[in-house]
Design a protein that fits this description.
heterodimer, A: 511 residues, alpha+beta, D-Maltodextrin-Binding Protein, domain 2, Dipeptide-binding Protein, domain 3, 2 domains, 11-stranded mixed beta sheet, 4-stranded antiparallel beta sheet, disordered N terminus, B: 314 residues, mainly alpha, 12 helices, globular
């Protein structure tokens, strides 16, 4: 028996010796890896994980969600604010060794503007993108706008070498990311691992780090992303030292991580809003009175508690830009957010003419329980007012398709993170499921898109949020945190939601 | 023999095509749009429609079926909507992982099942027999994922003998590779070994009461020789049939196990592809699994004839 135990231990030792890890590897256990590295082919943020660490844009987001120059040396509008001239930094190299030039920027952004989602927003705002000198790019705008720098911070707007993107449509992923970031991709196997190695020729900016902006240091020799769909396995990977960081953990594991001598928990506060979205085009919820009645009927604290399990992991904050550090964070339009008003709910329900129709609420457990659990609690609360809910739990693929048909739902569960600019919030798009198409909203969004003064833009956003609370096309339950486990000794991880999924400036434990 | 194999190979064709056609239809009739999955939340309906057109998903179902059938018959399984690689290039590496785990699990199930079954039969109605039967019932009642989580807790977290999850290919180190598939294979194999224990026990009890065993004993042959040479070979024939069924269970059980242990196998690929509505990958994976099962069943039939001389292949 002892011999067997020794043999097993020896095998384990040999096994661990053979595992492809290095002393300065930063191993990150993540729920999934994207099927393709190219961030342009999908609007889903989860698909940008690798690119966020290997690529950079002309701008990057700081902790306050403000765009700061990254690959751009300078940027200036002309007097009419119809031309944005961007000078590139000198001495920047792609991972392939080629120098960064204006042609690369034109090729990358031209491809991005043909893509879905925010690419289409850029296309609507920009008439042309041309290189006027080897280090100068000029964006001709259709109208004055303050949105462009924010759009250019997004991962799909990353600058890749012209050679790598040439001939590739936005739906055809590039074979490898030839970018300028502090790490370069050296291995990518979608269901096994993505390995990024330090890029020796990386040229960091001189400003202090803030979010994804400023100085970036590749403190790990390699960053290795390990896809581990099972949350308990991600947790155990950190507890046993097989991974240095485990992302997107359920809060149920908080005590286990906190009490472990091998790990520390990291709570990223104000991560995203949990929401419900109404079908404003058809059916009973097209009536604003019914939507307002539902909002007045809901007591948010039990809903968020059911979702998160602990009051430390959520806040009852009304802002539709949930990160308090964001310049877009505001309480405008929300009075006594979070508390039910039974009298008002009953009054509005009576005024709405609601006749007991069953409201179909689409939800899915595939995303995470935070979609389903708030819906379940809200359903119970609404039934106290005689509002009937048919909670339809379905797989993610069916959920995403069903909600595009206004004949098939009245409400669906959703979430909303902080966006760099309210113009790109998908809910505000009238074609987004829910289909909120209010002329006042359209006018305000247009003003927001075409305004260049920051203070004026913030005021317009406050008006939009006020309108959201008046018309109630969607309801926010609260703001949830996110939870990661770090192996003891990992340094440099910040609790800023603005940095997203980037792991530069993060060092693995020293041995 | 060769004619028999040829005829069985022909019979494999409907075995493979019927599930494939069902999968083709179910995928396209179930709600869920690959284009919407690819483009994500922020794509407009127009953008989704444009991509559907590019992918040929706006064609009538009959047209899609004809193109698909032509592709299958010529082994052009198409390209994954997400990986953007030919399915035929994607499948082998995933199938290799699943086969690796399933074979090790089958080996564990066979060895444990045979030893425990024979021991229980030989010690009939003793505490050893009752204990082994109780363990087998317990093993059959518990799902694989429960075993998997228990094994992780014990052998990876508590004693740190095996890695928690992940996969190392044999080309990167045989020992390291074995360490990554050992726990998944044990989790898969233990449950099947419970089934095999019961089967082997019952089969051995039947054989041990046969007159020829009594004759062998009467001739003074050592008990060990009676059991190993005369009883075990005959008792093994129905055991092999169960082993064949177990192998197919191992392939389906591998889905949950691959997800828990983060193994890049066919089961995980299939689940992800169904979730993403990656039609070509789902169809390719189902084809690969159907072929593997058909070949496995053929192999079991051939083995059966080798073990039991009364069986003739014709």
């Amino acid at each position: 028996m002892i011999r067997l135990a020794k043999a097993v231990s020896a095998a384990a030792l040999l096994g661990s010796l053979s595992l492809p890890t290095m002393a300065a590897d930063l191993r990150i256990a993540t729920p999934q890896l994207p099927a393709a590295l190219d961030p342009v082919v999908s609007t889903l943020g989860t698909n940008w994980l690798v690119a966020a660490n290997a690529c950079e844009g002309l701008y990057a987001l700081d902790d306050n969600w403000q765009p700061q120059l990254m690959l751009a040396q300078s940027a200036a509008y002309d007097e009419a604010a119809l031309t944005l001239t961007i000078k590139l930094r000198q001495g920047i190299k792609f991972h392939s060794g080629a120098p960064l030039a204006a042609d690369d920027v034109v090729a990358s952004l031209s491809r991005y503007r043909e893509s879905a989602g925010t690419g289409a927003v850029l296309k609507a705002l920009v008439a042309s993108i041309v290189a006027t000198a080897p280090d100068t790019v000029v964006l001709k705008l259709n109208a004055p706008t303050g949105v462009i720098p924010g759009l250019l911070t997004l991962t799909p707007a990353s600058i890749m070498s012209k050679a790598s993107v040439e001939g590739k449509s936005p739906s055809q992923p590039v074979a490898n990311l030839d970018c300028t970031g502090p790490f370069k991709v050296t291995e990518f196997q979608p269901d096994r691992q993505a390995v990024l190695a330090r890029f020796a020729d990386y040229q960091p900016r001189g400003e202090p780090s803030s979010g994804a902006a400023g100085e970036k240091k590749a403190l790990a020799d390699r960053v290795i992303f390990l896809p581990q769909p099972e949350p308990s396995v991600r947790r155990d990977s950190v507890l046993t030292g097989a991974a240095d960081i485990a992302t997107t953990l359920p809060f149920d594991f908080y005590d286990a991580v906190k009490s472990s001598p091998a790990a520390v928990p990291l709570i990223v506060k104000d991560n995203q809003s949990l929401t419900m979205v109404f079908n404003t085009r058809k059916g009973p919820t097209a009536n604003p009175k019914l939507r307002q009645a539902i909002y007045a009927a809901l007591d948010m604290d039990p809903i968020m508690l059911a979702a998160e399990g602990n009051p430390d992991f959520y806040t009852l904050d009304p802002s539709w830009a949930p990160d308090r550090n964001s310049v877009w964070h505001t309480g405008a339009g929300a009075e006594k957010f979070g508390t039910a008003n039974p009298e008002r709910a009953k009054k509005l329900l009576a005024e709405s003419g609601y006749k007991g129709e069953t409201l179909r609420w689409l939800t899915s457990k595939d995303f995470y329980q935070q979609h389903y659990l708030p819906a379940l609690t809200a359903q119970q609360q609404l039934e106290d007012y005689g509002i009937k809910i048919d909670l339809q739990v379905m797989p993610a693929a069916a959920f995403v398709q069903t909600r595009t048909d206004p004949d098939k739902f009245d409400i669906f569960s959703s979430f909303l993170p902080t966006y760099v600019d309210p113009v790109v919030i998908p809910y505000l798009n009238a074609s987004y499921p829910g289909f909120w198409n209010d002329p006042r909203k359209e006018e305000l969004v247009k003003k927001l898109a075409t305004s260049t003064d920051r203070k004026a833009r913030i005021d317009i956003w406050k008006q939009i949020q006020t309108l959201i609370y008046e018309e109630t096309p969607y309801i926010k339950f609260g703001t949830e945190a996110s939870f990661e486990a770090l192996r003891k000794g990992v340094t440099g991880v910040t609790d800023s939601p603005a940095i997203g999924q980037a792991f530069f400036n993060v060092a693995p434990p020293t041995k | 023999m060769i004619r028999y194999i040829g005829r069985r190979l022909l019979l494999i064709l409907p075995t493979i095509f019927v599930p494939l056609i069902l999968v083709f239809l179910m995928l396209r009739l179930a709600p869920g749009d690959p284009a919407a999955q690819i483009l994500g939340d922020q794509a407009t309906p127009d953008q989704v429609a444009a991509l559907r057109h590019d992918m040929g998903l706006d064609q009538p179902l009959v047209v899609q079926f004809v193109f698909w059938l032509k592709g299958v018959l010529t082994l052009h399984l198409g390209a994954s909507f997400f990986f953007r690689q030919p399915v035929i290039d994607i499948l082998p590496s995933y199938a290799f992982v699943t086969i690796q785990v399933a074979l090790l699990a089958l080996f564990i199930a066979l060895v444990v099942g045979a030893c425990a079954g024979v021991a229980a039969a030989l010690k009939r109605d003793t505490p050893i027999d009752r204990g082994l039967v109780a363990l087998a019932v317990l093993g059959l009642s518990l799902p694989e994922f429960w075993f998997a989580l228990l094994l992780i807790f014990l052998f990876a977290v508590t004693w740190r003998i095996f890695p928690v999850a992940g996969y190392v290919a044999p080309s990167e180190g045989l020992v390291a590779s074995f360490m990554t598939i050992a726990l998944p294979a044990i989790a898969l194999g233990l449950r099947q070994s419970a089934l095999m224990t019961r089967m082997m026990r019952s089969s051995m009890l039947d054989v041990m009461s046969e007159p020829y065993i009594a004759t062998a004993r009467a001739q003074g042959l050592p008990e060990r020789r009676v059991v190993l040479r005369y009883a075990l070979r005959v008792a093994a024939a129905p055991f092999v049939t169960v082993a064949g069924l177990s192998a197919s269970h191992l392939l389906s059980g591998a889905v949950a196990i691959e997800l828990i242990f983060s193994l890049p196998g066919l089961g995980k690929l299939l689940i992800d592809a169904v979730g993403r509505r990656d039609y070509p990958v789902v169809e390719g994976a189902v084809l690969a699994i159907a072929i593997m099962l058909a070949i496995l069943n053929l192999a079991i039939d051939l083995l059966y004839a080798l073990l039991d001389p009364r069986v003739r292949l014709s």
